[in-house]
Amino acid sequence: MNTTLKHRALLATCAAVAATVGIAILVAPVAFHATNGIEFAATPSALSDVRAPGGALVALAGLMLAGVFSPMLAATSTAVAAAVLLSYGVARLFAMAV
């Protein structure tokens, strides 16, 4: 897949956002969720469950970033970025509906 500078910049931006959110969830899950008014008991089990999506986001951000540097991974990286961003959007819409 031939990637343009604009395409690579968009993938890099998506990767940066996903990595930033993922790292914030991994490093400071209580503070991260407190910004949305979510409070929970900081037990090891709860922290593990809350940190898991952060790890997934960091891993997916790495795959998005790989598409910036490898034209062979650009299509896969674009699909991953679209899936991650759309899943958050659809989940928010679902949450507002129920």
Which secondary structure elements does this structure contain, and how are they paired or packed?
Elements: H1 5-27, H2 29-34, H3 44-69, H4 74-97
Explained architecture:
By secondary structure, this protein is mostly helical. It has four helices and no strands. Helix 1 (5-27) packs across helix 4 (74-97) and helix 3 crosses helix 4 (74-97). The chain is elongated, with a radius of gyration of 15 Å. The protein starts with a helix and ends with a helix. The model has no long low-confidence stretch (mean pLDDT 93).
Question: What's the short version?
Answer:
This protein has 98 residues and is mostly helical. Helices cover 81% and strands 0% of the residues.
Number of strands: 0
Q: By helix and strand content, what is the structural category?
A: mainly alpha
Task: Give the SSE string.
Answer: HHHH
**Sheet of most strands:** none
**Span of the ends, CA to CA:** 40 Å
Mean pLDDT: 93
Rg is 15 Å
The amount of beta strand, in percent, is: under 5%
| Outline type | elongated
Helix content: over 70%
Low-confidence stretches: none
Number of helical regions: 4
